[in-house]
Amino acid sequence: MFKKGGADLATDSVPILNPLTIQACFFIPTVDQWRKEIIDLNNYANQQSAVIKFNYISNQGGSINIDNINFGNSLSIAGNDKINNLKVYPNPARDIITFETTSDEDFQLTIFNSLGQSVLQQHCTSRQNTINTVTFQSGIYYYKMVSNNGEIVSGKFVKE
User: Fold this and answer.
1) Residues whose CB falls within 8 Å of the CB of residue 1, separated by 6 or more in sequence, listed in order
2) Quick one: residue 139, left, alpha or beta (phi over 0 = left, psi -120 to 50 = alpha)?
3) Is there a contact between 144 and 112 (Cβ–Cβ < 8 Å)?
4) CA–CA gap between residue 83 and residue 114 (Å, rounded)
5) Is 157 exposed, middle or buried (0-12, 13-18, 19+ CB in 10 A)?
6) Burial classification of residue 54, based on how many CB atoms lie within 10 Å of its CB (0-12 exposed, 13-18 middle, 19 or more buried)
């Protein structure tokens, strides 16, 4: 269960208290006032269905704005090879993203945008490979790593 409230969930430092007009009751967030929360739902991955409930309780009035809810998963194919010990960070990425494995094996990295178009292909020869994402537009990107022995690992990351 995910629980957050008060200052931990606030997007504006000044709460709306005792509004005197109808207009004062409403808060319209600016671009910088939206929050991004990531909730791990892996415990429900094997369920055929799930119910997600958002519960807003306030003793001072106010409102909650929820937008752009995304559900997704990452896929890992193959056995216990070292490429499965993949770390991808930071996620979300700003200027760079690093792909780190415990394997000395080379692999081919392909990054796709949300339309499925390849935006980067790179042959990686070290355990730690840092990719410059400055030119990537904000959004969700998918990656696929293919090792020399044919093992495939894929997943996603967010570019802010």
Assistant:
1) none
2) left
3) yes
4) 24
5) buried
6) exposed
Tell whether omega for the bond before 19 is within 30 degrees of 0, i.e. cis: no
The two three-digit tokens of residue 9, written as one number: 């969930």
pLDDT tens sequence across 106-150: 899 999 998 889 999 999 998 899 999 999 999 999 999 988 887
Tokens of 122: 């790179």
Rounded CA separation 82/85 (Å):
6
Does the pTM surpass 0.90? The reply is no
In sequence order, which residues have a C-beta less than 8 Å from that of residue 149 and are 6 or more positions away? 81, 105
Q: Determine the pLDDT at residue 80.
A: 38
Containing H/E element for 159?
strand 152-159
Name the phi and psi angles at 72, rounded to 5. Answer: -160, 175
